[in-house]
Amino acid sequence: MPQRQEKYSRLFTSSLILTSPGIAVLFLLVILHLIVWQAALGAGVIILLGTGYILSSHYSHVEKLKEYITALRQLKGKDPLPGIPSAAGSFLYPELNLSLSRMAQERQQYRRQLEAVTEGNEAILSSLPDPLIMLGKKRQIIRGNPAAQTIFGNNITGRELSTILRNPSILNAVDTVENSNEDISRFVEFKIHGRVERYMLARIARMSEQTWDGTRVIISLHDQTAAKKVDQMRGDFIANASHELKTPLASLMGFIETLKGPAKDDPEAQQRFLNIMQDQSERMSHLVSDLLSLSRIELLEHTPPTGVTDLNIIITKITEGLHTQIQNKQITIRKDLSPDLQDSIPVLGDAESLTQLFQNLLENAIKYGHKGTTVTIRCKAYGPGSQGMRRLGRPSVAIAIIDQGDGIPREHIPRLTERFYRVDAARSRELGGTGLGLAIVKHIVNRHRGVLTIDSEVGRGSTFTVYLPKAAVSEMNLPAWESSNLA
User: Fold this and answer.
1) Where are the membrane-spanning stretches (predicted)?
2) Dist CA 326 CA 319 (whole Å)
3) Which of 91, 111, 190, 299 qualifies as a FRET site for 365, CA 20 to 30 Å off?
């Protein structure tokens, strides 16, 4: 009702204004006695009504055009244009419809082009493997692409840069670039600390003009971890191989020299020496194999696996492969699985790496467990609010390998996962150990973003517990060999 009153009031006022010159002329003619006042009044009423009719039609047309423009403003790029209102009854400017229609078509076409360009740019940003962070004023994060969110989290928008990158060199470089009057860029190398260290190269560049979303500075990060790891592993491999291979090589050279000299005609000594040489050769072969395996694992440590696998199948396959060692030491393997893990133990991980991890742990449990004892494999799932949830920040599965051996003195436990660290070097070599098994285990656990805990009591045995991220059974994507085992 108020809108209708306002409409009539506007119509009356407009009609009165437009007819005022004509009414004034009629009033003048009455004063000059050229026409009688009755005729002047009738003519004035006719002029007022005619003008009101024309304006009413025009205002109705303008109101329709207003609604049409409002509908245009609410359109999205792919929406169809609304139908243009009819120009019937518009006496003043019938061409206005056509002009607005052309303008709407051009505007819609331009908007579609802009949205296509924007979608293309977003697709490019999303597909970039390198993290990209867009900054506004005072180092405020406008947004980051998916690669950046993978490293720094999904909730980085609106935060200050120093809350995710505390490196002073980067912050100083950002301030320098932002406050510069020229389009300059800076390069900064830095390290992201954490369970798995990342080596990054940051390029900080200033936009020539501020973008529509407020971006002034762009930080692009290039992961150099793999290259750094390769350089580091090359040096470590040479150092470790030269150190650990020195003793067996010296033994082989000594025995060869003895066989060529004093023992040349002694068949009994030859047989004994050849057996020792075979043992030393096998030890070197295992050592080189473990070193290469550790190098491959370290190279991939910064890229967590995304597949899902079933630990139940992996552990069953490993215990079947260790049947001979189990029989020789009269070991009993006991599985202690929580009720919800009886059928499967789904975790986020790489089947090949997890096989190597639990192969090492089970082999150690059998090697160092006393003859005729039990090795227990205990599995338990942890949900929200539990210990495992607090360790990983998400639902997890804990797999504990428990042996009944001599145990490990507490002062040695923190160093067990170091390369070539042995509690009893002589016994380790006698049992065929290379000193790299637990180092391999540690790096595989790190790659899977899990946690390894070691608990031991001298005279009672040791417990090695691995916490891994749990996956839903519906997410299972088993390799071919696992699928065949399920069948």
Assistant:
1) 12-31, 37-56
2) 8
3) 299
Radius of gyration of the chain (CA): 41
Q: What is the maximum span of the chain, computed from C-alpha positions, in angstroms?
A: 160
* Residue 194: how many other CB atoms lie within 10 Å: 11
Structure confidence by residue, pLDDT tens digits, 120-135: 777 777 777 788 888 8
Where do we find the tokens 């050849």? 274
Q: Which residues contact 187 (CB under 8 A, 6 or more apart)?
A: 201, 202, 203, 204
Q: How far is CA 447 from CA 116, 195, 204, in A?
A: 39, 9, 29
Number of Cβ within a 10 Å radius of residue 153: 11
Q: What span, in angstroms and rounded, lies between the C-alpha atoms of 304 and 296? A: 14
| C-alpha to C-alpha distances, 229 to 224, 299, 439, nearest whole angstrom | 9, 6, 16
Label residue 138 left, alpha or beta by phi (over 0 means left) and psi (-120 to 50 means alpha).
left
What CATH number labels 305-486? 3.30.565.10
pLDDT tens, 386-440? 666 666 777 888 999 999 888 888 888 888 887 777 676 555 555 555 677 788 8
Percent of the chain clearing pLDDT 90 (strictly above) = 5
For the segment(s) 225-303, the CATH number from 2.60.40.10, 2.60.40.420, 1.10.287.130, 1.10.287.470 is 1.10.287.130
| DSSP string across 26-81 | HHHHHHTTSS-HHHHHHHHHHHHHHHHHHHHHHHHHHHHHHHHHHHHHT--TTSPP
Token pair, residue 334, equals: 């006991």
Contact 329, 366 (CB under 8 A): yes
Structure token pair of residue 162 = 């120093």
User: Quick one: the chain helix, strand, coil %, rounded to 5?
Assistant: 55, 15, 30
Residue 348: name the closest of 306, 377, 388 by CA: 306
